[in-house]
Amino acid sequence: MWPPRRIAGEVLLSLTMGLMAAGIEGLDDSSGTVRTVAVALAAVLLPPLRRALPATVLLVTAVASAGLDGLAPLLLVAGWSAGRRIAAVGRATCTFVLAYVLNIGLAQVWELPHFSPGILIMSALATLVAVIVPGLAGRYWSQRRTLADTLREYHAHLQREREMIAVQARIRERQRIAQDMHDSLGHQLALISVHTGALEVDRELTGRQREAVGVLREASVAAMHELREVVGLLRDGTEAPGQGLPPVAAGGAPTPALAALGEEEAKAPSRGVAGIDGLMEASRGAGAAVRLRRSGEVRPLAPTADHAAYRLVQEGLTNAHKHAPGAPITIELRYEPDSLVVEVTNGPAPEGGARNVVSGGQGLTGLGERTRLVGGMVHAGPTADGGFRLAGVLPYTSPEGAPGPAPGGTATTFVDGAGDFRQQLPAGSPGDADPVNDWNGMPKELAKAMSRNRPGRGIAVGCGVAALVALLLVIVAVLGLVVAAGEADKAMIEPKLYDTVTVGQPESEVRKKLPDGASFLTEGLEKGAPPVPKGAKCLSLNSTEFGSSLDKSPVYRFCFRDGKLIEKESFEIKD
Length: 575
What we know:
Elements: H1 4-27, H2 33-49, H3 54-65, H4 72-85, H5 89-110, H6 117-200, H7 207-236, H8 256-267, H9 276-285, E1 290-295, H10 303-323, E2 329-335, E3 339-346, H11 362-373, E4 377-382, E5 388-395, H12 444-452, H13 455-491, E6 492-493, H14 495-500, H15 507-513, E7 537-543, E8 552-561, E9 564-574
Helix pairs in contact: 1-2, 3-4, 3-5, 4-6, 5-6, 6-7, 6-13, 7-8, 8-9, 9-10, 10-11
């Protein structure tokens, strides 16, 4: 189904061709009403068919326009359309040659009573301009457009290939990181767990020492659980949950609250919103004043957003215990219509409670990246009463294009598919670039077309076509003038020559002074002329002078009978 814009264009083109055909046929006195209407109707019906039947419409128009001048403008449209839509070179060549020959040949048959070499030359040049030139221009335009479409498709293919390569490289890097973490950290944590387990059963330790060693052992076990989870997620290509080791204060000795958080982390079956209650209870068990408030209708989150909410609360509690131990803490979960708002707020640190701790800010940075990947945002900053507030907004569903679980549970990696790979390529010669972007990787046909259709060459070819068309028009004009001059010598005389001829002179003597009149310029001179004398044969010629008005032409007529000039007339006919 054609779009409305194309339908409007086709209707406008058909009406224009129909009106032009009717106007041209109306100028010919020999054309009746029926013929004018038929030609106009043909000019209206043929243009829409040129898209489906370009060769047929061109041939029909070439044949019909040889005898019907009203269809001549349609030749330009049919030639352009055929050049665009006939794909095969051989078929296009045969179609245009056949149309050219048929138009010229039928035009000569139509003008057979007044045939002359000048008419043949004029017809050949006119057909060349009306059929061949539009066909060449249409074919050039079509090939340029096809090449541009192919380049766009190839560019999109390169982008997809680049994205796949980036995905594979990211997966390989994640697997390498996972292997390094497993081989190095796993070994060290296993040694810590074994040594602390052996030290815990040492009979020489006091109760407080044995309790501290137990905390260390449980922390190492929790760290190994975290490491195992992170390694598994890295190898699967999904999001790494973040920092896994239990938080510790400066100097490496865990505070009771921090140790409790690490212990809860190791035992918690869920690291989502459902596990926030466990984090709160662990902090309360360590002596912190923590309260949890919920509001709104509870709604499920995407797995990555759910895990981000858990990490946000854990980071907020950790920061509160590290920087403001003993301060009251408030956890708030607000289920808004489009997202979950998580806030962890702590009051100012009590006098003497604040301590200098080592903090690199990596926790907040990781949270910001985590929430950004799920389409959310994080804000952290001091409150008006001197406390600290950590808040995050997490959407219920992952945004389109954001990394996360794909449909069907298939994991994806953190590759931005919308990025243009060209921005990641260093400048250099094609041979020094990434192999996927090397022109040598192109299909042979496209590489060959590219080598022949550089922008500069395209401009040169376009200028060449324009120059060729201009040259053809100049040649047509020059030849037209030459032919017109030759035809004028056969059909026109000056008034003084008309005056030198007298009635009664022998026909042979008069005809030697006059041209033979065998030209298309003498057609129609009998219309509106005085009656021909009975039994006489007349020769009508044009005058070199202008008529009394723009729509009238002067004519000289010489009538012969019995070998003598019996009459000469000077009159005007209406053009």
